Amino acid sequence: MDFSFLAKRYYRELTENVIPFWLRHSMDEAHGGYFSCLLSDGEVYDTDKFVWLQARQVWTFSMLYNQLECNPNWLDFALHGARFLEAHGRDEKGDWYFSLTRDGRPLLQPYNIFSDCFAAMAFGQLARATGSEKQREIAAVTFQRITERRGNPKGIYEKAVPGTRPLKSFALPMILCNLVLEIEDALPGELVEETIEECIREISGDFYDPGKGLLFEHVAPDGKFVNSFEGRLLNPGHAIEATWFIMDLAARKDDESLMEWAVQTMLNMLTYGWDEKYGGIYYFMDARGYPPQQLEWDQKLWWVHLEALVALLKGYAFTGEPECAIWFEKLHDYTWQHFPDPNHGEWFGYLNRQGEVLLHLKGGKWKGCFHVPRALFQCARALEQLIH
C-alpha cells in the first residue's frame, strides 16, 4: 500500500468533497441549527431537526477545528449549531429531546439516551476550542444525567414489560468508552478511569462470546446468551466500531493483550459479516443463521464500511497484523467504488445487497455530518502513523 498517497486521498475527500457539502447546504440561517435531511444535490426535503444529528455536526466541526485546522469558519459553524441546541435541546430535567421542529419546538420526548451522549460529546469538544466553562459544564452535567439513567436509559418511555425478559444493550457501554475520553477534561479523573474499566469489562466480557469470537448486541443482565431475536442479533458494523474504541483504550493503557483481543475480534466480526457473493458488510445478522427480524438486514450502509476501514487501519498501525492490511485493501476498494458521490460531494448512505444506491439522499433521520468526516479523518491520521 502507498500510505502517503492514501493519506492524501482521504484528506482531500474530507476537505474538498465532504465538509464543503455540509457548509453549503445544511446551515439554517433563519432559525439556527442545521438541516440534516438533504437529497443528493443538497436540496432540503424535510426541516425537522434531530438532536443527536445536530450534536454530531457540532462535534464534527469542533473536532476538525481542534485537530486538523484552526479554521474560524469551522468554529463559527459549530457555534451556530451549539446555540440552537442550548436554546431548544433540553427538557426541564436537562435531558435532551430526540427531535425538534425547525424553529426548536420539541417533537419527540427524550426517550433516546444517545441524544444526551452526542450532546455531551459536542459541548465537550466545543469547549476545547473556545475555552468556555459553560460549554464544559453542559458536557459534564449531561454526562452525569447519562450515568444516572444508565440502568434504565429509556425510563418512562420504555415499551418492554419489566422483568419478563430483561436485556442489556451493547450500545451504551460501547459509546461510553469513547465518550468519556471525548470529555475527559470536564470530568474527575477517577470517574474517567472507572468508566473505562467498566466499559472494557462489559464489552470484552458480558457481550463477547469466546466460543464464536463475536460480540452480541444484547445479553441478559448477567451476560448470558438469550435465545430470542434480540439475543441472537449481531450488528457487525457496531461491533467493529467498538473495537477501534477499545484499541485506542488499549494503547492508552499500554495493554498488549487487550489490543490483541480487539484486533482479533474486529477481524472475526468482519469475516463473519462479509457478503461473499456481492461484497460488502451485512447490516444485521442472526448468530444462529436464522432470518433476522430487521428487514433491512442485507443492506450495505455507509457507516458500517467506514468504521471498519478505521478499525483495520488502526489495527494494522498498532500491531502490524498482516490480515488487517489485506482486509483494508479489499474493503477500501469496495467502499470507494460504491459510496462516494463524484457529482455533488458527500457519500450515499444506503445500498442494496448488490451494491446499488438504494436511497438518493445525503442525510436524513439517521445519517448526518458525522461518520463520513470522522472516518476520513481517522483513516488519514492512521495512514500518517503508518508512514512514520
Structure in words:
This protein has twelve helices and 13 strands. The protein has 388 residues and is mainly α. It has a domain at 1-30 and 207-388: Glycosyltransferase. Strands 3-4-5 form a three-stranded antiparallel beta sheet. β1 and β2 (44-46) form a beta hairpin. It is globular. The chain starts with a helix and ends with a helix.
Order of helices and strands: HEEEHHEEHHEHHEEEEHHEEHHEH
State the distance separating the first and last CA atoms.
Answer: 14 Å
Q: Can you tell me the overall shape? A: globular
Query: What level of helicity do the residues show?
Result: 40-55%
Number of strands: 13
CATH names the topology of the domain at 1-30 and 207-388 as Glycosyltransferase
Largest sheet: 3 strands, antiparallel
Question: Helices and strands in order, then pairings?
Answer:
Elements: H1 3-25, E1 37-38, E2 44-46, E3 49-50, H2 51-67, H3 72-88, E4 99-100, E5 106-108, H4 113-130, H5 133-149, E6 168-169, H6 171-182, H7 189-206, E7 208-209, E8 214-215, E9 218-219, E10 233-234, H8 236-253, H9 256-273, E11 285-286, E12 300-301, H10 302-319, H11 322-338, E13 350-351, H12 371-387
Antiparallel strand pairs: 1-2, 3-4, 4-5, 6-9, 7-8, 10-11, 12-13
Helix pairs in contact: 1-12, 2-3, 2-4, 3-4, 4-5, 4-6, 6-7, 6-8, 8-9, 8-10, 9-10, 10-11, 10-12
